[in-house]
Amino acid sequence: RYKxxxxxxxxxxxxxxxxxxxxxxxIDDKWYQYTYKRIQGYLKFWESKLAFNESTLILNAGxxxxxxxxxxxxxxxxxxxxxxxGIKDAIIASIEDIPIQDNYFDVCICVGSVINYCNxxxxxxxxxxxxxxxxxxxxxxxxxxxxxxxxxxxxNSNLDIIETFNSGYVDKIWVYSEKYIANTLQHYKFSIINxxxxxxxxxxxxxxxxxxxxxxxYVNFDKLIKWIPHIRKISNNIILIAKKI
Length: 245
Fold this sequence. Notes:
Layout: E1 3-4, H1 11-19, H2 30-49, E2 57-61, E3 73-78, E4 91-92, E5 105-110, H3 120-130, E6 131-142, E7 159-166, E8 169-176, H4 178-187, E9 190-198, H5 201-209, H6 212-215, H7 222-225, E10 237-244
Parallel strand pairs: 2-3, 2-5, 3-4, 5-6
Antiparallel strand pairs: 1-7, 6-10, 7-8, 9-10
């Protein structure tokens, strides 16, 4: 699924890729369906815990038109216009340069590894700017401490560009270390209050079987591995919630 690439990521290529997709979360793709369900479950938990309601102002950054069934007044922002067709007041823009006034939103949702297509520092700076003090950022990203990268320079590196497959399409993304994202969040006055790791055993199995669908059969081991120190932190994805302080 992955190999190292030293090429840059062109936003126009990202836009073309997603405009060409019929479905960002294909129902016949076990890997991405599990990813979607983990994201949605995490969002639902924090929706309940923080008592989101219909007046909660949410920036859904890189949404692809998805609300994940989360309560709130969603402003959809995406680089791809195709998946925002018919959505009122949708914004076509990059998360690195958000055309919204300062201190406006209560919550920013940036999931589905959207930040992996961008300069994470620029994006997190923008999330800080558009969120109210005390607002929440829910962020999901592909990390570099991943079984697939063991034995390579990419493993646990602060940042690197790798080549991957996305629902059958060839793709390039940044991968970031957990420490790099945590330090960037801290610099921009965010305090992480919770995080979860997922696609743990599935990423290890992919290293051996080289087939996403076969590797995805092992996703249920996430429930067990989350109780094992150190090992649980080696995963494909991290999802977290941080508060602007």
